[in-house]
User: Which sequence fits this backbone?
């Protein structure tokens, strides 16, 4: 992923939800706002669909950090989009994954990750956070631009669509049942939560 410091460092304009929240914190430019989001602790929010939850709980995930960042940029005339991608979760990325792969006889667990895109460059405000992963995600099976505050339900429907149309039809998943892959995904989500908590 690229450094967000190369993005246009515009001054925030008052009169919009996210801009006003940052201005109240005496944060006046886009780069300073992204720095604030990056430095916030990584943590699961109690309600990802509430637009101000990150500020109330002073923590966020790839879902909430990038939703706030994309909205803020758009409020200030910068075309910074939120993307949702599906990556191959393995032991190399998340410690403890091999147990799940062995249990369900899978080559990897397909998982969702969010990030930002501007002029072909990718930015991840959770990179370097204690997010349960050993490294940043660079390779994706599939990615798609979304609205900043995509709901959990819509994100899951996107995941199921790609799982059904692309992943389950690949040679790596030939003969595998979708129910098994979904069970593995549930355990992988639990594993990420445990890794973040430690």
Assistant:
């Amino acid at each position: 992923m690229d450094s967000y410091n190369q993005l246009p460092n515009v001054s925030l304009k008052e009169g919009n939800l996210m801009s006003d929240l940052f201005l109240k914190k005496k944060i006046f430019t886009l780069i300073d706002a992204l720095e604030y989001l990056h430095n916030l602790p990584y943590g699961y929010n109690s309600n990802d669909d509430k637009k101000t939850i990150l500020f109330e709980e002073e923590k966020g995930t790839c879902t909430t950090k990038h939703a706030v960042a994309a909205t803020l940029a758009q409020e200030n005339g910068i075309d910074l989009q939120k993307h949702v991608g599906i990556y191959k979760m393995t032991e190399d990325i998340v410690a403890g994954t091999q147990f799940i792969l062995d249990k369900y006889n899978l080559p990897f667990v397909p998982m969702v990750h969010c990030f930002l895109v501007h002029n072909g460059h990718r930015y991840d405000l959770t990179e370097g956070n204690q997010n349960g992963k050993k490294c940043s995600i660079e390779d994706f099976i599939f990615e798609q631009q979304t609205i900043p505050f995509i709901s959990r339900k819509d994100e899951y429907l996107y995941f199921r669509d790609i799982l059904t149309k692309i992943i389950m039809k690949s040679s790596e998943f030939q003969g595998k049942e979708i129910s098994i892959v979904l069970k593995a995904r549930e355990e992988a989500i639990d594993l990420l939560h445990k890794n973040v908590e430690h």
About this structure: The chain has two domains: 4-75, 85-197. The chain has a mean pLDDT of 94. Residues 4-75 form one domain.
